[in-house]
Amino acid sequence: MSYLLKRIAFYIFTAWAAITINFFVPRLIPGDPVQALISKERGQLNADAVHSLYVLFGLDKQQPLWQQYLDYWGQLLHGDLGLSFTFFPSPVSEVISSSLPWTLALVGITTVCSFLLGTGLGVLAGWRRGSWVDLVLPVTTFLSSVPYFWFGLIMIELLAGPDSIFPSSGGYDPGVTPGWDIDFIGSAVQHSLLPALTILISSMSGWILSMRNMMVTVSSEDYITVAHAKGLSDRRVMLGYAARNALLPNVSGFALSLGLIVGGTLLVEIVFSYPGVGFQLFQAVGAKDYPLMQGIFLIITLSVLAANFIADLAYLVLDPRTRKEG
Amino acid sequence: MIEPLIEIKSLNVDYGLGDEAVHAVRDVTLTLHRGEVLGLAGESGSGKSTLAYGMTRLLPPPGVVAGGEVIYHDPERGPYDVLSLTNSELREFRWAETSIVFQGAMNSLNPVHRIGSQLTDAIKAHDPRGSRQAREARARELLNLVGIPGDRMESYPHQLSGGMRQRVMIGMALALEPKVVIMDEPTTALDVVMQRQILGELVQLRERLGFSVLFITHDLSLLVEFSDRIAIMYGGRIVEQAPAKQIYTDSLHPYSAGLLGSFPALRGPKRELTGIPGSPPDLRAMPTGCAFHPRCPKSFEPCAQEIPVLGVPDAPGGSDRTVACWLHPVR
Amino acid sequence: MAISTVDLQAAAGEAAPSPRPAKRQKFRFISNGKTLAGLIILGFYVLLAIFGPILSPYDPDARGSDLISPPTSAHWFGTTHLGQDIFSQVLSGARGVVYVGLLAGVVATVLAVIIGVSSGYLANSGGEALSALSNVFLVIPALPLIIIVASILPSVSNTVIGLVIGLTSWAWGARVLRAQTLSLRGRDYVDAAKATGESTWRIIFFELLPNLTAVIASGFVGTVIFAVLSEITLAFIGVSDPTDWNWGTILFWAQSQQALAQGAWWWFVPAGLAIAILGTALSLLNFGIDEIVNPRLRSAGRIKGKTVRMRIGFTPVLGKDNR
User: Contact B70/B11 with Cβ under 8 angstroms?
Assistant: First the structure.
């Protein structure tokens, strides 16, 4: 269990670090971009809202830094992330909670699928090295070098259109009202197909390549030779011995690179005008909506940390060496 | 008369292909008889492990078997060439007829599977119709055979000590009662006490079960003690081959003498420790003639010119030994 | 994003196969086909970065009368909604992309080497703290952080963007280098150097760094890939140097002017392809480095025009058909 406790301590520390970065970034940068926006909206902001923004962005220069830091934490713990300028006068927390489920569903599911599929294909590519499967490699190399959002544009150009079953933008049909019914869910799934496919194809190739290389590396371990010497079937050696061990570094690689991948996949939402967090971040950047940007950064970071933790649990199950000694 | 079990005939094993190939095993002919322990000794790089992996086709890339035959005298099916088997025939042949105990016990076990499942999967692969209970009982029996309590079935390799892991490997090698067990430096990674203990147990197991052993090591002293016959390799070739006692008391090849001079006498009068000057040859740039001549204290004219042929020497000691040295003309 | 094996193994806390002594592999990489192809394409991009703006047939900002015109002999890649020549924009954009990529790569690599090697070499709480720091930076999503920092800054130039990317993306390299340093630290030659009383810095510079070259190079190339993609993504969402063109800016205008809906494929295809080919070249380079560090990854051999398939567990027997 000490492994798990260490990981939990690490995640708490990282969450603290991310929140602290979020606190310092606006304070370290010269000029007061937020001040101007607050002044502009002052007529419509009540005193509480103004105060909350002051605390978030450190405009209250009279207070010592540690006092500002404590106030900031106090506010965060109440779930107060300030008011969004783009969706004025909604609070940031409300804006994000409307978009987060969309992103969790799209990015979450496709990231996991892409890891599983890519790893599976990588197993084959690594095991059947020197056969026709090698032809897949140049294609995957190319796909893994393409920016996700650009690939999205190409997918729209190629697959979406007036006659296509793939809608090119939005999260659901404007004619349907959101709710837990067949119409809405069907429409939401249909709208997520193309963005999901985009993320899947472009992020999968990285997993194919890394799993292939791990397979090749693991294949020359002694226990693989032993497995061959034992006369085990090809399938058993490939899955039970090579892939099972090659999977371990791939899973920890998955955990570690989640932060990188999620950043890229979020922006696929932009080209599809998908109503998720990534599209909101895009809107926030365009409107210089700092409270929303910072709120989104925090939420993304915390989600990535949670996903990381799940990946750690998976690793714990997969590698007996990290489990408690018996 | 003892009958042959495996006959290796002019086996050549290379690393790499075409012009870039490095010839690691050259023209090796060697016979392992039924029920004997044949020791194969040589410095690192002499090709002894390459020979073992080459004859079983387990050599990793870029290894290639460049030629030769490995005739297995199957008691039921008669003799056949192992190198001509198809991959699926080879799969059936492996472990059932010849098993291997590998160098480095640390990495020979799959770290993510329990000991039990690594013992049973070999049994299952060769007898898919057997029951699960029967397989597990057999695995337990094998662990007991090598002195490990049966409840270690549930352990993972990292929970065992180095000596226990090597015992597991030996037990695993005996799972299908093979006729031949190849041991590649089986105890090199262990401490001396453990080494003796395990080898002692192995000798007992062999007497009980009657398999033949091809024992590969750089440690000639172990072979003198534990094997019936010894073959000595240098630069990819066998340079001398004789009953263990003869090698110890009356070796003919200067290289064998050098190897023997590298460890203290086991019993009897003390000998002087000498060692061999120089270092093993570079396989990419082998000396002309006898590969050993640059390091040989007794080299003379023909040594640098021509490669001596392995044959029965015209010397006292009987006809069951061979040597490749210009000092001892072939009969 | 392609992750090299060396990285993955190191990231998993395992030591990658030990790099060979530094001398032997010098110039070895030239003979590797993948590396060579990568280097040739990269060379072409560097030339583009230097001469692109001079070679542009038009001023990339100049408006023309042909609006949203498909590729013609006058405008090879067509025109924008303002009649600007897209070919000229792509050519001028190369400089910014290459500059930001290299700047960020250098900054991140220097940081990664300093933090990674010292956290691996110093076996004290300082080393542990540096390692924790790099893990924190690794897990925090870099791109959103870059977006926030870059958009809060009062003015962004290519240099600022390169610095921001470099300062936030060193963690992966640092982690890999730490793992490698840890495994090198226990080697005999390092112990020997310690025993003869060499100073810590001398050991780091003359004993460790030469053996980390391949890992550092692979980390550098990886960071450049990440930096180029990040820069282009930033520009695509509207955070870029307003005085300069880069391929992300072209895509930004294509997206905001509904290039897709107008069927103006020429507006976004060339810039995207330029990025993808640059990324592919960098990945190829990294594969080459991978194969040098990890010889197991090299492909099957050939003999007299016919390939002998090297299959693990079934050594080929020349002249016999073992299928």
Answer: yes
